[in-house]
Amino acid sequence: MQGVSANGKIGVMVCGHGSRDGDAIREFQTMAAALGQRLPQYELESGFLEFARPVIRDGLEALKRRGVKRILAVPGMLFAAGHVKNDVPSEINEFAQANPDIELRFGRDLAIDPRMLRAAGERIAEAEQHAGGKAARAETLLMVVGRGTNDPDANSNISKVARMLWEGMGFGWAETAYSGVTQPLVDAALSRAVRLGFRRIVVFPYFLFTGVLVKRIYEWTDIAARANPDIEFVKADYLNGHPLVLDTFVDRVNEILAGTGNMNCQMCKYREQVIGFEQDRGAAQSGHHHHVRGIGTDADHGHDHGHEHDHDPGRDHHHNDHGHHRHPPSRKGNGRGK
Questions:
Q1: In 3D, which of 131, 134, 136, 76 has the Cα closest to residue 108?
Q2: pLDDT per residue over 209-267, tens digit each?
Q3: Are 21 and 51 in contact (CB under 8 A)?
Q4: What angle, 0 to 180 degrees and rounded to 10, lies between the N-to-C axes of helices 186-193 and 212-227?
Q5: pLDDT tens column, 243-252
Q6: pTM for the complete prediction?
Q7: Labelling 286: which of 94, 102, 268, 318 has CA 20 to 30 A away?
Q8: Rounded Cα distance, 162 and 245, in Å
Q9: Is the dihedral of CA 191, 149, 110, 272 positive or negative?
């Protein structure tokens, strides 16, 4: 019988990052609902690591109440940085320890996947088509923007995505930038890009959903466009609920069942002595998000999501509110990043 294993009913738990931005939460919930339609044979719940509700524990408890005995937890995140390696497993482990009669398996991130690259390519092509104009791709610079973390392996994935889109789509050049934590930040990257002489610059946020950071990326792009009226700036849409993204999520669930979902740990700073991060190897796995778990979005607190609590553009919202350092991280303590 589908949806039932030898150990009982199977459930899927989609673990989201969370955001202060209500639009981001709605997009995640829409994606989770679409994933539930793709996986009707399983009970499905979703929850957030930070800010928004329901939190991950709420989703796990809901599956438990529905009689689920085997939970397949998938991170609703692009790459394996601190949240996937650290914080979400901490939530899963806490629940597992309190519920030894329920089997929990944790899947891997979406990672660099051919379907994800095709989805990205389609978002970029849609933006080009909508913009019109006569700038050929050979005369266009593509800027791929990642979230930015304290994990160099996750940051390097954005560089690989940019390179594969650059070569695969035939752009004249590509640059990589980040919305916070690491370098180069978007404003600095745009300042450099405008000096390279391309007629058009396409800015593509490699994000799953909107939020404070995506909106900041577009604001930085608008500022650069006003300062450089001779260059055409095109803002591509982020990935959102692209069908190929959903296909990848389904595959991650199936990997858990098949036992084939092994995370690539070759360059993980917690597993290997990565240059510049040697002290992080073997650090204890523990969460660093507890003080913002379930505290609500800006709408819950009467804030406008367009205003940051800390206006330093070199930090993302996670590091603003958590008091972490900008990259490179402090070598004090366990050095765990996002």
A1: 76
A2: 999 999 999 999 999 999 999 999 999 999 999 999 999 999 999 999 999 866 555 44
A3: no
A4: 30
A5: 999 999 999 9
A6: 0.82
A7: 102
A8: 17
A9: positive
